[in-house]
Design brief:
Layout (H helix, E strand, L loop, with lengths): L4 H9 L12 H9 L3 H21 L4 H17 L10 H19 L17 H9 L3 H4 L3 H12 L3 H13 L3 H8 L3 H18 L1 H6 L1
Helix pairs in contact: 2-3, 3-4, 3-9, 4-5, 5-10, 6-8, 9-11, 10-11
Length: 212
Amino acid sequence: MRRSADTGEHDRLHAPVSDMNDNLSDEALMQGYAGGNVDAFGCLYERHKGGLYRFLLRQCSNRDVADELFQETWHVLIRNAASYRVTAKFTTWLYRIGHHRLIDWYRRHQRGALTGYGDPGRGAGIEELATAASGQEPETSLGNERLQARFIRALDELPAEQREIFVLREETGMTLHEIATVLDCPPETAKSRLRYATAKLRARLGDLYESA
């Protein structure tokens, strides 16, 4: 009996990872998957599932929405695998899909602009962002939950477009040109938004920067 398309996609989202793929670049893995190597997809999924999920979660109101957008992003990747071409880094392509899923969701639900990150308990990985802001080691600065809550409040106060660029930069290490590609904006706009975001965080968290 023939399996449904949904079942096939589920299998690919949980595909095994072959040791042979571990040393390949993301782009080579995606090309391999487009050519029929299911193990290559499994390796890509393991590499990027955490960062992609955190990016979506920080821009949503709850985990259910993030779960939905996360699955949609990978399903779009699967459906478009055959047409994949190495014209940019794989991460740029992946996060661009995620960004578009996010925007489409808010348009469908008439939510307008992207919302804030929410309460401190939602932010798996938020410790890394707090470390980036303070320059301190996790064991000396991030054991303090009040510090994390303070950092999240500062992020919440950023305009949505500035917050998204800041998170992309800290989460993925993308260049400003790559971030601009993800967000469909000119590189100079991305640079300006990141500069404003950093300046506002410094103004709110100045003592952390001074002690770094």
